[in-house]
Amino acid sequence: MTLAQPPHRKAKALRPGAPRPAKELCSECGFCDTYYIHYVKEACAFLNQQFPALEQQTHGRRRDLDAEHEVYFGVHQAMVAARKQQPIEGAQWTGIVSTIAIEMLTQGQVEGVVCVQNTESDRFQPKPVLATTPEEILAARVNKPTLSPNLSVLEQVEQSGLKRLLVIGVGCQIQALRAVEQKLGLEKLYVLGTPCVDNVSRAGLQKFLETTSRSPETVVHYEFMQDFRVHFKHSDGSTETVPFFGLKTNQLKDVFAPSCMSCFDYVNGLADLVVGYMGAPFGWQWIVVRNGKGQEMLDLVMDQLETQPVMSQGDRRQAVQQSIPAYDKGVTLPLWAAKLMGVLIERLGPKGLEYARFSIDSHFTRNYLYVKRNYPEKLDAHVPEFAKRIVGQYKLPE
Predict the structure, then answer these.
(1) Tens digits of per-residue pLDDT, 349-385?
(2) Which of 52, 74, 57, 67 is nearest to 3 (CA)?
(3) Confidence of residue 110 (pLDDT cuts 50, 70, 90)
């Protein structure tokens, strides 16, 4: 039995470059590039925040706002830290996401995978694809740290006739997907999510690389990591680290997309399974199983993983409170001071799940202020209750 049978209502997709319904808050998720734009007012994360209803639809219940771990990390039934015993060559970390997608395809759980390759001319320019072979999935390994129109392939999914699908995506994309999943004519939809924060346009990415890296033209991938440093991997195999506190914040404050500055779904709460780094020790990945479908996906690869329980250490609150005015004022430390600060916080600061809470708190307080100042009329309806509770722990500037 399919989730729903087409036909459904359709509208003409917007032409490239045309204004989007969410205007400057558009995250360029690709939804409006399809005839599903008919549903954009209900589906868009920046026009209609509907976490409770979509959590109920997806997981069978809403997150428990009386349980701190769900306020922060969403509905879930298990967490684990993991890494592949035999990493995939060229993967950003050890290749857990790619491995899950390949196993789902080759073992017949799904017939296609929505993932993101890069264009031939630009290693960082995203190219969403409906992959039907392991080779196409492998070609999508490594994050594309730019706004990506993943949902632009939704028409292709429906027209392909595929009935079992895996979609890999970030929070804003997944909210729109969940809002229309009953229209896709699928028998089974699996969603593998990654945590996401602070995306940029391609031009914004270039500014970040040129402002931060010693060799922006050779960066293959990068990540903001648990040791409070940005880790860059270069094409010659070398690595470069830059302390968070040494970033040229005064030059980079405006580089992040307004949609990302207005987002409160860092942990991808509507995915079935989430794989990222933020709640795990350095060198490991954090896996969050949200529901039965998520457990199905994880079970397919457990024999290929080394695992350990999640842990939590330290207290984030003072560091978060101090970071609020520092970011607000665009404070940038001298490099020697930034390195010293990084060493001290790495040794004494939050680790594991407490680091994840630190990151969530820091971004939610920043984003709350951004929405309050720039879209005050949206503030109450747009900020989910769980985010209001997190932000409410801190004293914010006006």
Answers:
(1) 799 999 999 999 999 999 999 999 999 999 999 999 9
(2) 57
(3) very high
Query: What pTM, to 2 d.p., does this model score?
Result: 0.93
List the chain domain ranges: 23-199+259-312
Q: Side-chain half-sphere of 174: how many Cα atoms within 13 Å?
A: 31
Confidence of residue 342 (pLDDT cuts 50, 70, 90): low
**The token pair that represents 140 in the structure block:** 């999508």
Measuring CA to CA, which residue among 148, 142, 98 is closest to residue 125? 148
Q: What is the pLDDT of residues 199-240, one digit of tens each?
A: 888 888 999 999 999 999 999 988 888 888 899 999 999 999
pLDDT recorded at residue 331 = 64
Strand 78-84 to 164-169 pairing: unpaired
pLDDT band at 336 (very low <50, low <70, confident <90, very high): low
- Residue 1 pLDDT exceeds 60: no
Residues in the chain: 398
State the pairing for strand pair 188-193/273-276.
parallel
C-alpha span between 54 and 45 (Å, rounded): 11
SS3 per-residue string spanning the chain: CCCCCCCCCCCCCCCCCCCCCCHHHCCCCCHHHCHHHHHHHHHCCCCCCCHHHHHHHHHCCCCCCCCHHHHHHCCCCEEEEEEECCCCCCCCCCCHHHHHHHHHHHCCCCCEEEEEEEECCEEEEEEEEEECCHHHHHCCCCCCCECCCHHHHHHHHHHHCCCEEEEEECHHHHHHHHHHHHHCCCCEEEEEECCCCCCECHHHHHHHHHHHCCCHHHEEEEEECCCCEEEEEECCCCEEEEEHHHCCHHHHCCCECCCHHHCCCCCCCCCCEEEECCCCCCCCEEEEECCHHHHHHHHHHHHHEEEECCCEECCCHHHHHHHHHHHHCCCCCCHHHHHHHHHHHHHHCCEEHHHHHHHHHHHHHHHHHHHHHHCHHHHHHHCCHHHHHHHCCCCCCC
